[in-house]
Structures
1.
Amino acid sequence: MRHYSSILFFKFLVSVIFFLTACTTSKTPVPTEIPAVPSEQPGRELRQVTFADIPGWNADKVSEAWPAFVHSCKVLKKQAEWRNTCLLAEKVRGEESEIRTFLETFLEPYQVVLTDGNDTGMITGYYEPLLQGSRIQTARYQTPLYRVPPDLIVVDLAVTYPQLKGLRLRGKLNGKRLVPYLTRSEIRESRHLAGSEIVWVDDPVDAFFLQVQGSGRVFIEKTGETIRVAYGDQNGHPYRSIGRYLVDKGEMKLEEASAQRIKKWLSEHPARLNEVLDANPSYVFFREEKLDNPQIGPKGALGVPLTGGRSVAVDSRHIPLGVPLFINTTEPNSDVLLQRLVMAQDTGGAIKGVLRLDYFWGFGNEAGERAGKMKQPVKMWILQPKKDK
């Protein structure tokens, strides 16, 4: 999972928020009105089309997306709109013709466009990396991966203010006040999280990019085991792109700011490592999971395993989690078309906006190479259950 929750409204709410966290009765008045959530402009429109209108629909092997669709249905069938469709899907065998017939019979496509008429967004990529680690700190393994700290407090703002759905406030208590949690630099420079280490890894840059990806695997050298570290939570500070930081500093051009290029620059400028990494104050905490089946991907924000090449991260304020999407884009740094059915099963801190996607490439170095280079235009269609006429 690749969430970095916003701390929007922190300054506004910090003076009154302790009533949500204190155990005793507070006399602090609950505000009756709060600022509206700033909406991203322009908004979203759905234009109904036919499957014949979708470029590449007939060429895609939709049976390869079926396992991901079945995973989504485990969640979607709890919604009235999807219940009957997902129950019928349980009876479908995994044959290409039967799956295509099912999709075209029970679903209808809508192109996702902006209210200003723009139909093209941006798609990037992510993957599940493999790191080298140790259960104890050694001369080689110096960078910790932390579990969720016990003093991290998460406030779901929608509990009190439904209009703030999806926004959570993160911080820690200072007396009776909720204050911002430590930034990346403060976590590194202090001993505040000592004792919360899951493992230690051998490369701070790999650890940083593991946080960007949201989950990964760690090979424990001493025992020979491989564990998965999955997204646990986040410190509440906004995600900032270190690629953008390097571009703004004149160290590289925007079109050069791939993960591979950034890693190369950092290896050539070790004295500036902390400066650059600290430009992103966001910090991700993990939880350890057993890796019983290496073929199964990490769980995304939907709570189901991600499928390499068939799962994407979306901004769930605009695209509902779980739904099938069809994307029309290209392979990274290529003119080769990438037109396929995918499932909206994850979210990400940098994935903001209607036409913004992050494509999950899977596990390993090859997936990482593709993910790090992916940044190109995309068009998309959402598939929804047919409405009763």
Note: Confidence is low (pLDDT under 50) at residues 3-40.
2.
Amino acid sequence: MAPNYNIANLPDEYRIASDSDMKKRIAVRKQELGDKLVILVHHYQRLELVEFNDFLGDSYGLSKMASIQKNAEYIVFCGVRFMAEAADILTDDDKKVYLANATAGCPMADMAPNDDVYRSWEFIESVLGPDKVIPLAYMNSSADLKAFCGKYGGLICTSSNADAAFDYCFKQGKKLFFFPDQHLGRNTANKKGIPKNKIAFYDARQENGGLTAAMLDNANVILWSGYCPIHVNFNTDQIKQQRKAFPDLQIIVHPECPEEVVDLADSVGSTSYIVKYVEQAAAGSTIAIGTEMNLVHRLAVQNPDKKIISLAGSMCVVCSNMYRTSLQDLCFTLENFDKAELIKVPEDVAKYALIALERMLEVGQ
């Protein structure tokens, strides 16, 4: 059995190699493989990795790109595990999907353990009766929970198409159970005009989520208690301080931020939306962005005619999981497919997860 290589134990020729050497070798390998290789890079990746993308985007956009690949034999994901799992589920069996760094996970996804979600579902259905609730999982979730959604008539969403996913669920005439990100769920519900007293919060730390039968019966939306450890770093004090420092400031934030931050921002949207917002802004604009620092840094570099800053000021809001992937990881993967992190979702899981992901792509069109 091949050893499970990751950033901590790459062979010395990669681990201690210079970035310039790695770049040369990656470029050579890309040329050798041609259209047999597709490299998918998430917006939060380091600037030096973005250089080698075949497709750059958010989790929704990259899922779409994975689903339409025809010639590629190797799909390498510079992102985190749930993204690579989705790519494997959405691609044909003759394609191999690799995660460039085996240790890159997602703390938010880990906040919704399979057993806990199934237990909550059993409780909710025991109170409301069968076929009264539809599960909607954020892309930041395990393949097993995506399969859970597919099995019970639900779907997946990203921050790009959460609005459309909510609409899909409500058209079914059912209550909506959203997990794992409470903030994206609440901000989307607010945008849809759902009264706050119709939003229930399922606290996974409490018995039955801390909810009574009356509370479930009254709710239109039931939110799981997960969150993004990166986006909860943004707060209203930062907004006040930045507006004081820059009177003409535009503030744009990701919908994983708390609702009080979203309420005070000038605009809110997915990573792809943020990129477009900055690109389309007038020269001379000053824009504070409430999202991961690698994206903010890249936008500042790529838009020198504008002042691009982090909403968090001097606080370095970096996703450590996204940051784990290095040029060394990518080069090792491209040169050692037999030893790299091959992502293969079990067939019984992929079957139902595919249903939920295909619904996501359909409602997002």
Note: The mean pLDDT is 94.
3.
Amino acid sequence: MSVSLGEGRTPLLAAPRLSGRFGVEVWLKWEAANPTGSFKDRGMAVAVARAVERGAPGVVCASTGNTAASAAAYAARAGIEAAIVVPEKAVAGPKLAQVRAAGARIVAVPGTFADAYDLALELARREGYVGVNSTNEDRIEGQKSAAAEIVEELGGLPDAVLLPYGGGGNTKAYARGFAEVAGRLPRLHPTQAERRADTFASAIRIVEPIHRAAVEDAVGRSAGAVVTVSERELEEAWRAVGREEGLFCEPASAAGVAALARGAAARGERVVCVLTGHGLKDPGRVAA
């Protein structure tokens, strides 16, 4: 069964001003062009379709926002239930609005993403739902398609790919996708917030990355490195993306650009920064 809202085939945009600023050839993978405004839709389309094939009455996930919006939308598209478990007061309002618009059930829990994830596992067991966090391999299979698109659009591998690092599932997916389509990896630079627990970049506000081992493996195989950036570096990069390239991304999406400012790429290299979500999902910082 196919459950699609038109995800994938997102633009890869040249970034001439950022290229001039950093002395590298910068390309921006604009994942905000996906149906619910984030990269999560690639994997969710596959995960929800396979849940339906297995006869599941619904899906469940823990989320800091983007997974929630995507799971709710694709469950509605498939005609099944969705339960969304979120850490209390940790999710941007527009993302919760997307969940409500799709008619999903929201369960808020005190504590962190890890607490929400534990409850999501319990709900999956109790109600027979399929868990659609990135620990579901169907999610990774869907998300790896972005790597194939980059290779096709560039006509080969970039020197480096820089992307936000929250739970780490997207790094795992890109590594798998590049290995399958090109037989090798570009240098991978997953970029995390120094203040994981309370960063203003809410999409990567995950204290314990579920895919830490897979990220370390991918980084090692690619000769890359995990980059850690401050709140100030994140904000400066986020504002630069908007003011210099005209793209309004959510703050977490600019993590890879912050890594560029940290020197993650050498002069003259061709790099791709993955902008994972739209700024309308987390617009509060604009007025700050």
Note: The chain has eleven helices and ten strands.
4.
Amino acid sequence: MISLEGFETIQAADLKTASKKLDQNEVDVVLCDVKLPDGNGVDFITKFKSKFPGLEIILLTAYGNIADGVQAIKNGAFDYITKGDDNNRIIPLVHRAYEKVELTKRVRNLEKQLSNRYSFDRIIGKSKPILQAIDLAKKVAPTDTTVLLTGETGTGKEVFAQAIHQASQRSQNNFVAINCSAFGKELLESEMFGHKAGAFTGAIKDQKGLFEEASNGTIFLDEIGEMSLDLQVKLLRVLETGEFIKVGDSKITKVNVRIIAATHRHLNEEMEKGQFRQDLYYRLSVFQIQLPPLRERVADIELLVKYFVAQYSARTNKNILSIAPQFLDILKLHSFPGNIRELKNIIERSVILAESGNLTPDTLPIELQVNEAAKSTGKILSAFELASAEKIHIQKVMNYANGNKTEAARLLNIAITTLYRKLEDYKIS
């Protein structure tokens, strides 16, 4: 009957045989009699479910009773039905059980993808500075210790924070991030700790804060050096007691949250200026990890370029076949004040501009090309030199005109033939 519904079926006469067949085959749904030659189906549900957690079991009996039915469900059975009276329910039940198994598989697959997306494997690099930072992060991740990530803007502090959370005991709970520089003092306090209705103009209902949203999980406080001294006091109390009071409230709220903070500022200097509390600094910096700037990770540039090329090729539906050595050489000589974020933007632009599937120096920003030209000629080109300024201006106009040479010539107020000559002279594509 069940095979006629398109299901592949396997049969077993007793629990011992069934156990062997489950070991040898991938089974989604089991129809099991209660009374079997070597045992009771109700008792064996727990054993099967602990060994095969994704398995769904439907129990069948000719002698149904409420006590057995209740115990079967408690043990993890999908359902418990009486043979004869409930025969018409069997096929719909099998379909429902199978749908539940498929849904569980999809959820687990998504969880696995999410785990991979935010794991330490996502951090690209083989240079000594980045490997040292990863090693420290892996060591602190399984603990509940507060972590302070320091380093220049664009070095990947949030990526590290997510990886630490994903490798922690809190990974099944929320990871919540907030940029402390994105809000004014009052709004940041409300965002972090929540507020009661009527606490301020526009507060028309009670609002949970991000600390509550992150309860039993992790909160990432980015750019914590921008936080006001008043809020620093409130954050210190959370670190010490796990308690805070919402804006406009008089009642204490308790949370269990791991805090990972990050800053591009030198907090020691901020403390000397009176801009950052010393006691908060010592609570935050129990375990500090300094993330290296990209200019100290030259060995990682090629790996990062290939990673971002693959990413943006897929997004723009372009097939990048090769990366010119000169393209990489120019990038390796660049100081990258914006670090990985800057490199990411450069590669996205280059992939968009690439023709014939090749990344060449002329797809790089004009400023990098000018710097390379200066290095190759041995002379420093000033932005005020006519040739340098003209090349930069023509490139910008070409970009504005989306590569339309006729439109670019009109905007530049020159003949189209003159534009073609200059494009060839300056090697602008």
Note: Residues 377-384 have pLDDT under 50 and may be disordered.
